[in-house]
Design a protein that fits this description.
The chain is an alpha/beta fold. It contains nine helices and eight strands. The protein has one domain (2-220): TIM Barrel, CATH 3.20.20.10. The structure holds pyridoxal-5'-phosphate.
């Protein structure tokens, strides 16, 4: 049995230590519990232990879990995985935010769907800061053009910031470089568009300490809370 309560406490302490270690105010960084592959009872337990946001990376799984979720237990469902256009409608119905917007076509369609539902959908733009071909996301050099197009053409999206996945392999200097790139891209975009863009979603189980030290405001943590998974 995985001790979810203890794990949450430990991770919160580690996030706090990382914040303090670089002079940040403790409590600034928000924790998204990544719940892909986890049974609903583990997620309920995590939310009872104070988790406020959960991240799923497959639409079908997200929809099933939202469908059986207890009504009296508030939680925010975020889609953090690559989204195909043909699943966008279901995603907009089930998720309260999409953290993985990685193309203009997807952005335009999400905006249309959100508009039909009479709401604005909070989104993050996924940037491929490592340049790895296996990863989704916009090339760093395209970030401003991409954001500009979205602001022009997607009235029902509310762009809250950027998201990235650190490079594979765990080499500290490479990982930090990717995270600090996201931070600087976000800073430049704030200036260019005079937008708050408060969210920098970066850092997972293996690299969240570095991410916090490089300016993350939202970490996405799965295996360190719930144990190992059978798929990534
Ligand atoms: C699975 C996943 C995570 C969490 O990964 P862990 O290493 O288990 O913490 C974070 N972000 C995304 C996009 C994921 O798909």
């Amino acid at each position: 049995m995985v001790a979810i309560r203890e794990n949450i406490e430990r991770i919160r302490n580690e996030i706090r230590d990382a914040e303090v270690s670089c002079g940040r105010r403790p409590g600034e960084v928000r924790l998204v519990a990544v719940t892909k592959t986890r049974p609903i009872n583990d997620i309920i337990e995590a939310v009872r232990c104070g988790i406020e946001m959960v991240g799923e990376n497959r639409v079908q799984e997200l929809v099933e879990k939202v469908g059986t979720w207890p009504q009296d237990l508030p939680v925010q469902w975020r889609l953090i995985g690559h989204l195909q256009r043909n699943k966008a409608r279901k995603a907009v119905q089930a998720a309260s935010a999409v953290d993985s917007v990685d193309s203009l076509e997807l952005a335009a369609f999400l905006s249309k769907l959100a508009g039909e539902g009479g709401k604005k959908l909070p989104v993050l733009l996924e940037i491929n800061t490592s340049g790895e071909g296996s990863k989704n996301g916009i090339a760093p050099g395209e970030t401003e053009k991409f954001l500009e197009e979205i602001l022009k053409t997607c009235p029902f999206l509310s762009v809250e910031g950027f998201m990235t996945i650190g490079p594979l392999g765990g080499d500290e200097s490479k990982v930090r470089k990717a995270f600090s790139l996201l931070r600087s891209l976000c800073g430049k975009a704030r200036d260019s568009f005079t937008l708050p863009l408060p969210v920098l979603s970066m850092g997972m189980s293996g690299d969240f300490r570095w991410a916090v030290q490089e300016g993350s405001t939202m970490v996405r943590i799965g295996s360190a809370l719930f144990g190992d998974r059978t798929y990534k």
